[in-house]
Amino acid sequence: MNKKHFILILASAITANIALGQQKKSGKMENSQKKQQVVALLKAIETGEAAPVAVINPNSYKQHNLAVADGLAGFGALLQQLPKGSAKVNTVRVFQDGNYVFAQTDYNFFGPKTGFDIFRFEDGKIVEHWDNLQQTPESPNPSGHTMIDGHTTLSDAGKASENKKIVSNFVNDILVNGKMEKLSAYFDGDNYVQHNPQIGDGLSGLGKALEAMAKQGITMKYNKIHKVLGEGNFVLAVSEGSFAGKATSFYDLFRVENGKIAEHWDVIETISPESDWKNSNGKFNFPE
């Protein structure tokens, strides 16, 4: 992306504020539209198209990807780093919880990556962004699953709050506080589809993976949940902790079925040292 193209992006974003004001008066900003806008924005990383970037508020855009500078200029600078035509973007799942839209995407820029992105909308514009990225392995996990395949159908539209509570309790009980005696209560026996690259299906697969990690001296610890978002039967938990002794951000997506955790995807990212951060917003810091 050249300088002229970046200026076009900024102009498009500013011009879109006028249309947004008209849209707010008409009351036609629908939830499904926000999802579509997020998918289009992410796809613009691949296509270089300027129009989708207009959904970002050019005057107020807080960035929590610590490798990207703050504001719309930071987003533009990120795009400029990519060789033309090199990026590939395929958003596999996208959900909405109030003013938040969160997506799971298969990326390829500077190598294949799997990522979760969270966008916060305010007055119909994106004003804040969080994400977690992990290099995608070449091979599937021990049960033959990739980091992105599996169920995509949204259901249980009226059970989002209930399912969010189930996931929040699970992460706090098991991952944060290590109350393993409660583990089986969250699952339907050994029926559990796992997409973590190192872990096989079921509680049996989880047990084998934890045993292998222990033998290698690898520890994983969740210290705190920062945010839980959900729509229907899908719930995303954003947590902070450590993996192999390094500060780590955990994004875990769960599919809940009949009150039990039925499927799990995750992305684990090491948090870079503060001296390397390109913004001062922190990796988490969700507004209350």
TrEMBL record:
SnoaL-like domain mapped to chain residues: 173-264
InterPro entries recorded: Cyclase_SnoaL-like, NTF2-like_dom_sf, SnoaL-like
Domain of life (superkingdom): Bacteria
Chain spans, region Disordered: 135-154
SUPFAM superfamilies: NTF2-like
Gene Ontology process terms (BP): polyketide metabolic process
Ranges of Polar residues composition bias in the record: 135-144
Pfam families named among the record's database cross-references: SnoaL_2
Protein name: SnoaL-like domain-containing protein
Species name: Chitinophaga tropicalis
